[in-house]
């Protein structure tokens, strides 16, 4: 289990990415971080020391911690990194892994966020077509659907600008390679984990507008069918990108409450789309007096800091050896060299904790 200061460092990486996108350069003070995340001053100092050793921040005596600006040179080659949400908790690790590899190979990076909106993605792609970009690493917007921006991706291909997708690809752009999680296998694995523990009525909550959600759901229900279990449609709930914003801003508990009140009746376990949702669900259930895992078991995806910071740590799937950012960066560098690459699915490993 990762230490508290490493979990806090993960959170602060997301804060750094968010502040950078807003043009800010100064982190909150140690006292402010201590209060905001309810941790000790020593935990904060250790987290900041880690971020400083990674070159992400600069600590100035008597002044505070500042985001370290990347050095740029006019002749430095540049790669565009496009993500859906700049505040997505898994993005900072992917960004850090990818940037470190790109920089070692002489490339600078420029980061964009689409907010998972097709219109914003189109604006970014149009701007990149007019820039001197070496390659693009992109998390597509609403990958559960065909993209209306296929014409721009095809134009980039004609311009011989390598484009690599991460997490999910569009069904109408299957010729473009993608580095993704093995989402079907993940849902299948979590379902069999719960079935082996005796659970027969399993519920689920999944994100609807990205490819990962339907694939994780499909793996779950496939395992249930193989085990001879009944699929209860009313036990499954779907949310989209707009719902996510409300939930992570603590404004969307009505969505979680509806799931608890209308979807969980009779179920003894829940598979969550990711740790972010699982954390919110666990928190709400505990507030309602539900015992976890005695009354309901909860499992999830990503094995992030969200799975470890709550009062009931969450059983979750993650990647212990092969990480998405490193795999994607090395694949994109191969594409830049003109090498033929194939799409890859990264396998999961289970970290069992108290929630299920």
Structure explained in plain terms:
With 356 residues, this protein is of the alpha/beta class. It has helices spanning 4-21, 30-37, 41-53, 91-104, 118-129, 150-158, 183-196, 212-226, 241-248, 253-263, 275-287, 324-336, and strands at residues 57-60, 64-67, 77-83, 107-113, 135-138, 163-166, 178-181, 202-207, 236-239, 269-272, 297-301, 315-318, 344-346, 349-351. The strands form 3 sheets. Strands 4-3-5-6-7-13 form a 6-stranded parallel sheet. Helix 4 (91-104) packs parallel to helix 12. The longest helix has 18 residues, at 4-21. It is globular. The two termini are 16 Å apart. Residues 71-75 have low confidence and may be disordered.
């Amino acid at each position: 289990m990762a230490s508290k200061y490493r979990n806090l460092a993960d959170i602060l990486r997301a804060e750094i990415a968010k502040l950078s996108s807003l043009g800010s350069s100064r982190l909150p003070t140690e006292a402010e971080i201590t209060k905001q995340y309810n941790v000790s001053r020593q935990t904060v100092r250790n987290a900041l020391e880690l971020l400083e050793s990674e070159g992400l921040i600069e600590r100035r005596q008597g002044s505070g911690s500042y985001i370290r600006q990347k050095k740029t040179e006019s002749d430095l080659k540049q790669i565009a990194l496009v993500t859906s949400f700049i505040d997505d908790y898994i993005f900072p690790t992917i960004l850090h892994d990818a940037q470190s590899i790109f920089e070692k190979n002489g490339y600078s990076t420029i980061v964009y966020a689409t907010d998972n909106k097709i219109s914003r993605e189109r604006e970014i792609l149009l701007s990149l077509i007019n820039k001197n970009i070496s390659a693009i690493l992109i998390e597509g917007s609403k990958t559960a659907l065909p993209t209306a921006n296929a014409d721009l991706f095809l134009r980039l291909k004609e311009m011989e600008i390598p484009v690599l997708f991460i997490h999910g690809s569009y069904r109408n752009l299957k010729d473009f390679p993608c580095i993704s999680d093995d989402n079907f296998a993940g849902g299948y694995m979590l379902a069999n984990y719960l079935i082996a523990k005796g659970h027969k009525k399993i519920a689920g909550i999944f994100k609807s507008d990205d490819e990962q959600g339907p694939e994780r759901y499909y793996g779950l229900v496939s395992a249930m069918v193989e085990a001879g279990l009944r699929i209860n449609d009313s036990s499954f709930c779907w949310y989209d990108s707009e719902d996510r914003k409300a939930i992570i801003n603590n404004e969307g508990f009505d969505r979680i409450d509806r799931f608890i009140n209308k979807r969980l009746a009779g179920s003894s376990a829940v598979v969550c789309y990711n740790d972010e949702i699982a954390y919110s669900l666990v928190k709400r259930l505990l507030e309602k007096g539900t015992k976890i895992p005695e009354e309901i078991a909860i499992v999830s995806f990503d094995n992030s800091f969200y799975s470890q910071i709550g009062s009931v740590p969450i059983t979750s799937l993650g990647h212990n050896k092969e990480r998405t950012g490193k795999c994607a960066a090395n694949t994109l560098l191969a594409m830049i060299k003109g090498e033929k690459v194939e799409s890859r699915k990264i396998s999961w490993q289970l970290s069992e904790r108290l929630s299920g």
